[in-house]
Amino acid sequence: MSNERENRVIHTFPYRQGEEIQMALTTFQGRHFVDLRLWYQGKGDGQNFKPTRKGIYFGVDKFPEFQKGMLRMTKAVDAMRQRSDEHEMDMR
Question: CATH number of the domain that 31 lies in?
């Protein structure tokens, strides 16, 4: 079994200046993981992004529960946005 880590970035998006969030699938010692992590832009090394300790890392067996949580979060965010939009309309 290889001790090398294989990382396949699925999606990235900007966070703040010089930072991004990477969503990746990782394989380590034959096991598969989901890695959601904040990366920062290094200085003096060609501006490559480097991982921070800020993030979450869990086995793909936990992904269905994470997915359920994200669906619930999506509904909650949508409801919050709708209330915010309605409030802005009332203020006009």
Answer: 2.30.31.10
pTM (predicted TM-score)? 0.79
- The one-letter amino acid code at 19 reads E
Closest residue by Cα to residue 66 from 29, 35, 31: 35
Number of domains composing the chain: 1
- Would you state the structure tokens that stand for residue 34, as one six-digit string? 């989901």
- How far the first Cα of the chain sits from its last, in Å, is 64
pLDDT in tens, the chain (92 residues): 667 889 999 999 999 999 999 999 999 999 999 999 999 998 776 678 999 999 999 999 999 999 999 999 999 999 999 988 777 766 66
Domain span holding position 18: 5-91
* H or E element that contains 25: strand 19-28
